[in-house]
Write a structure and sequence with these properties.
It catalyses: Cd(2+)(in) + ATP + H2O = Cd(2+)(out) + ADP + phosphate + H(+). It is found in: Cell membrane; Membrane. Its EC number is 7.2.2.21. It is an enzyme of class 7 (translocase). InterPro entries: ATPase_P-typ_P_site, ATPase_P-type_domA, Cation_Transport_ATPase_IB, P-typ_ATPase_IB, P_typ_ATPase, P_typ_ATPase_HD_dom. By secondary structure, the protein is an alpha+beta fold. It folds into 4 domains: about 100 residues; about 100 residues, Calcium-transporting ATPase, cytoplasmic transduction domain A; about 150 residues, no CATH class; about 180 residues, Calcium-transporting ATPase, cytoplasmic domain N, CATH 3.40.1110.10. Helices cover about 55% and strands about 20% of the residues. The protein is built from 24 helices and 20 strands. Strands 1, 2, 3, 4, 5, 6 and 7 form a 7-stranded antiparallel β-sheet that branches. The chain has a 7-stranded mixed β-sheet with strand order 8-20-19-18-9-16-17, sandwiched between helices. It has a 6-stranded antiparallel β-sheet with strand order 10-15-14-13-12-11. A hairpin with a 3-residue loop joins strand 11 and strand 12. The two termini are about 60 Å apart.
Length: about 625
C-alpha cells in the first residue's frame, strides 16, 4: 500500500510516541525496540528511496546523509535515535512542503482567476464553450460577475471591469465601445460584447501566468552558488565523518556529525525567498522575470528613464491659453475649426480641448491651406486666419514683437506654442505639452530614498523640453535629441561609470535600450507585446509609481535572503560545535536542523505580505544607514 506523505508522518509519529512511552515505562524491551524499528522503517522508506534515486544521477544529497546515519544507528542498536531522526526528517519535509505551497500562492490565485467558460454568439444564439474553443473574431458575451476569457475590443455595451489580475489595481475601470479588455479580468457591473482578438495561450493573462511560472523557476546567482557549494560540501561531510570515526573510533559521534552537517536550511534559504518575492510582485501587477533579475533590481545604481509615454502620459494636451482682445472660448473655437483638416497631433489636442470645453464642433473652414513646417492658413466665416509658428506670421507680415516675451517664456517651460491670428495681428497663443504623469515626481523622490544613486532621462525631444521636465521632476541629468542607438550608447557610458544600470521605457521604440541595459523595465505591459518580451521587469499598469514598489520589494527580498543565509550558517556552526563537544545528540540535532529549515521558509513567507507600508520602512532603514 502506498502511503501519502501526510499519512506516513501521522503513522510514524504515533509509533514514535508509543515507543517513547514504552522506553520510559518498561525500558528498552523487545516490544519497544520493534516499535522503534517499525517507526524508522515507515518514516525512512521515502528517505532511502530519494537517496538511491539521487545517487543514480551521481548526486549525494541530504537524504543520503540521513540514510547513512540511520543505517549506522540501527547497526549499533540505537533504535530510538533511528526512529527519532527519520520521523523528524519526514515531519520537517512535510511542513516545509506545506509552507512552500503558500509561497506559490500567487500562482494558485492566478490560476483561480483563469476563466472556466466563455459565452459566444454562434448564428445569433449564445453558446457556452471552453475558453480554449474560442476562435479569433468570435463575439463573446460577458455578463455581471463573469470573467473575461479573451483579449479583445468592446463592440457593444458598457461595464466596470476589475483588472486586478493584470494590472494589480482593484479599482474597476469603465469600459465602453472600442476599449480593449483582457482575459482574466472580471465584470463587476454592466455587460459587454467583445470581439476576440487574442485567444487561448496568446492572451495577456495566459502569458503573464506562463512568465510568472518561468520566473519562479529561474535561479538567482546566490542560489546557483549555494547549489554548487552543496554539491561538493555533502561528499566532504561524508569523508569528514569517516575520518572522524577512524580517528576517534566513536561511531555515534561520526553519525551525529553526518546528520547535523546537512546544509538543508542553507540550500533552501535563497530559492524560497525568490519564489515568495516574485509571487508578491505578480499579485501587485509587477512581473519580475526570475531570481537573478530580482537580485539585480535591488542593486541598481543608476536608473535611466525614457520621457515620452514613461515620465509623461505620451499624448500632447493643451496646457494654457492666452488671448488678446477676444474670449478664450472664441479663440479655441476658431482654432479647432481651422485644425479640422489637419492630421498633426498638436491640432488633434486642440480639437480635443475644444470639444471638451465647448461640445461637438462640426463646422469646417471654407478654405484651408497646409503650409509644411509653418502651420495653416484658413478661411472661416469669410475671414482669413493664421494658425502656426513664428515663421508663418513673419512670412505673412504680421508682427510678433510685443508677444515675443510670453512666447519665449512658454517655450522655456518645455511647451510647444501655437500662435493664432489674422492677417493684421496675433489674437492668442495656445500652449501644448505632453504633460508629466501625476505620480512621476513622487516616484523620483521615492527612488532616491530607496538608494538609487543617479536618475537620468533619455529623450529624443528637444533640449528645452527635456530641461524643463528634468527640473520639474528633480531628475539628476538629462540627455536630449537622442536617436534609439544614442540611448544605447549613453546607457553603456552610465554602466561603466556607476555600475548596474536599468532602463525604464514603454517597450516599443525603447526596445534596443531596454535590451542593452543591465535591467530593462517596461511601463504598461498589459497593452504592449514588445514590453512583455523585451523587458526584465514589466509594470502591468500605467501607474509608474509601482516602480518604487518593485525596487522596494526587490531590496526586501535580497535582505530576506541574507537573513536566511546568515541564520542557516549560524545554526550549522552552533550545531557542529555542539557535536564536536558531545553536547548535541543525533535526535536533538535533527530536531534543531529541521526547525531551522522551517524557520527559513516561514521567514520567506513574510514577503507575501510585503506592501506599500513596508516600502516606506525600507526607505527609513536606508536613510538610517546613510
Amino acid at each position: 500500500m502506498r502511503l501519502s506523505k501526510g499519512k506516513r508522518v501521522l503513522i510514524s509519529g504515533i509509533l514514535v510516541a508509543i515507543a517513547f512511552i514504552l522506553k520510559n515505562v518498561i525500558g528498552q524491551h523487545l516490544i519497544t525496540s520493534i516499535i522503534m524499528i517499525a517507526a524508522a522503517i515507515v518514516a525512512g522508506i521515502p528517505i532511502f528511496k530519494n537517496a538511491i534515486s539521487a545517487l543514480r544521477y551521481k548526486i549525494v544529497g541530504i537524504d543520503a546523509l540521513v540514510s547513512i546515519a540511520v543505517i549506522g544507528a540501527m547497526f549499533i542498536g540505537e533504535y530510538w535515535e533511528a526512529a527519532a531522526v527519520t520521523f523528524l526528517f519526514m515531519l520537517g519535509d512535510y511542513l516545509e512542503a506545506k509552507t512552500l505551497e503558500k509561497t506559490r500562492s500567487s500562482i494558485k490565485s492566478l490560476l483561480d482567476l483563469a476563466p472556466d467558460t466563455a459565452r459566444v454568439l454562434r448564428d445569433g444564439v449564445e453558446v457556452e464553450i471552453s475558453p480554449n474553443e474560442v476562435i479569433k473574431g468570435d463575439m463573446v458575451v460577458i455578463k455581471p460577475g463573469e470573467k473575461i476569457s479573451i483579449d479583445g475590443s468592446v463592440i457593444e455595451g458598457s461595464a466596470y471591469v476589475n483588472q486586478a489580475a493584470i494590472t494589480g489595481e482593484s479599482i474597476p475601470v469603465n469600459k465602453n465601445a472600442e476599449d480593449g479588455v483582457f482575459s482574466g479580468t472580471i465584470i463587476e457591473s454592466g455587460y459587454l460584447i467583445v470581439r476576440a482578438e487574442k485567444v487561448g495561450e496568446d492572451t495577456t493573462f495566459a502569458r503573464i501566468l506562463q512568465m510568472v511560472e518561468e520566473a519562479q523557476d529561474k535561479k538567482a546567482k546566490t542560489q546557483k552558488f549555494l547549489e554548487r557549494f552543496s554539491k561538493y560540501y555533502t561528499p566532504f561531510i561524508i569523508v569528514l565523518s569517516l575520518s572522524l570515526y577512524l580517528f576517534t573510533k566513536d561511531l555515534v559521534l561520526s553519525l551525529t556529525l553526518l546528520v547535523i552537517a546537512c546544509p538543508g536550511a542553507l540550500v533552501i534559504s535563497t530559492p524560497v525567498s525568490i519564489v515568495a518575492g516574485i509571487g508578491n510582485g505578480a499579485k501587485h501587477g509587477v512581473l519580475i522575470k526570475g531570481g537573478e533579475i530580482m537580485e539585480k533590481l535591488g542593486k541598481i545604481k543608476v536608473l535611466a528613464f525614457d520621457k515620452t509615454g514613461t515620465l509623461t502620459i505620451g499624448k500632447p494636451m493643451v496646457t494654457n491659453i492666452k488671448t488678446y482682445g477676444l474670449k478664450e472660448e472664441e479663440l479655441l473655437r476658431i482654432t479647432a475649426i481651422g485644425e479640422a483638416y489637419s492630421e498633426h497631433p498638436l491640432g488633434r489636442s486642440i480639437i480635443n480641448r475644444a470639444e471638451k470645453d465647448l461640445g461637438s464642433i462640426t463646422q469646417v473652414p471654407e478654405e484651408a491651406e497646409i503650409i509644411t513646417g509653418l502651420g495653416l492658413k484658413v478661411l472661416i466665416d469669410g475671414k482669413v486666419y493664421l494658425i502656426g509658428n513664428r515663421k508663418l506670421f513673419i512670412q505673412n507680415g504680421v508682427s510678433i514683437k510685443d508677444k515675443e516675451d510670453y512666447i519665449n517664456s512658454e517655450e522655456n517651460k518645455g511647451q510647444t506654442v501655437v500662435i493664432v491670428g489674422d492677417l493684421k495681428e496675433i489674437m492668442g497663443v495656445i500652449s501644448i505639452a505632453d504633460i508629466v504623469r501625476e505620480d512621476a515626481k513622487n516616484l523620483i523622490s521615492n527612488l532616491k530614498n530607496l538608494g538609487v544613486e543617479k536618475i537620468v532621462m533619455l529623450t529624443g525631444d528637444n533640449e528645452r523640453a527635456a530641461k524643463a521636465i528634468s527640473k520639474e521632476l528633480g531628475i539628476d541629468q538629462y540627455y536630449a535629441e537622442l536617436l534609439p542607438e544614442d540611448k544605447v550608447r549613453v546607457l553603456k557610458e552610465l554602466q561603466e561609470r556607476y555600475g548596474i544600470a536599468a532602463m525604464v521605457g514603454d517597450g516599443v521604440n525603447d526596445a534596443p535600450a531596454l535590451a542593452s541595459a543591465d535591467l530593462g523595465i517596461a511601463i504598461g505591459g498589459a497593452s504592449t507585446d514588445v514590453a512583455m518580451e523585451t523587458a526584465d521587469v514589466v509594470l502591468m499598469s500605467d501607474e509608474i509609481e509601482k516602480l518604487s514598489y518593485a525596487v522596494g520589494l526587490s531590496r526586501a527580498t535580497v535582505n530576506n535572503m541574507k537573513q536566511n543565509i546568515y541564520f542557516a550558517i549560524i545554526v550549522a556552526g552552533v550545531l557542529l560545535t555542539g557535536v564536536l563537544f558531545k553536547t548535541v545528540n543525533l535526535s536533538f540535532g535533527m530536531l534543531v536542523h529541521e526547525l531551522s529549515v522551517l524557520l527559513v521558509v516561514i521567514n520567506a513567507v513574510r514577503l507575501l505580505g510585503y506592501s506599500e507600508k513596508d516600502k516606506f520602512k525600507t526607505m527609513l532603514l536606508l536613510k538610517g544607514e546613510d
